[in-house]
Amino acid sequence: MIGSVSGDLGPVFKALADPTRRQVLDRLHERNGQTLGELCDRLGMARQSASQHLAVLEAANLISTVRQGREKLHYLNPVPLHEIQERWIDKFEGPRLRALSAVRHAAEEQHMTAVPTYVYVTYIKATPEQVWTALTDADLTARYWGHSNVSDWQPGSGWEHVRTDGSGTVDVSGTVVESVAPERLVFTFGGPADNPSQVTFEIQPHQDIVRLTVTHENLAEPADHEAVAVGWPAVMANLKSLLETGSVLPQSPWEMHAALRDEQLARTTPA
Known about the structure:
Elements: H1 10-16, H2 19-30, H3 36-43, H4 47-59, E1 63-68, E2 71-76, H5 79-89, H6 94-113, E3 118-124, H7 128-136, H8 138-145, E4 147-150, E5 158-163, E6 170-180, E7 184-189, E8 197-206, E9 209-217, H9 222-245, H10 258-268
Antiparallel strand pairs: 1-2, 3-9, 4-5, 5-6, 6-7, 7-8, 8-9
Helix pairs in contact: 1-4, 8-9, 9-10
């Protein structure tokens, strides 16, 4: 995500001269990886104005973008700010400057190999309450997910991803972190007990439809990201079909990637 910067820092100073653009960077520092719509909501400005500011920041390499489905996520890139520090603040501190540069390059290499957070957005013709029920009702999850998600969905409670074959086998388990019906549901999703991954569902009404955002964070390795990148769209497609038509898809969409699914479940199944 972090890129290099050219020797000409003029675009950086131009971008930083505007207080609104500095506010955009502050917002991304608070929470990285935001969409244009999220930034507009937090800044209270029109999409066109926000887009113009983002274009200036991107031209100055102060932000970078990543496509996640139909969404474009914006990330803060601190490298040009470090370049300013090197050129104008630490100019006469050669040994310290070289040490900082070595740390920076190591951090860049580590960042480039890190697994990004996975984000998926879909729009469903339903009410927020219907979507919430579909996410938390064990019988409904069994219909479109192939597993029953069992919990009382209270913060601090456990939840289990139980097979529907009658065996009672739990393939994934975790803890409910946040539960605000019908707006936001957060829970851990398997992985090491001391460092589990985390899934967030955000339900936002848009007139007669709902915008459902799924965010899967703290994925342990690239293979996990690859698995969820095919798993979440499959599950959400089935959920959307059930709520809009009353029936799931005629073929379980995740079966097209059964090998990836099985590998991911093997890594997240509790011992």
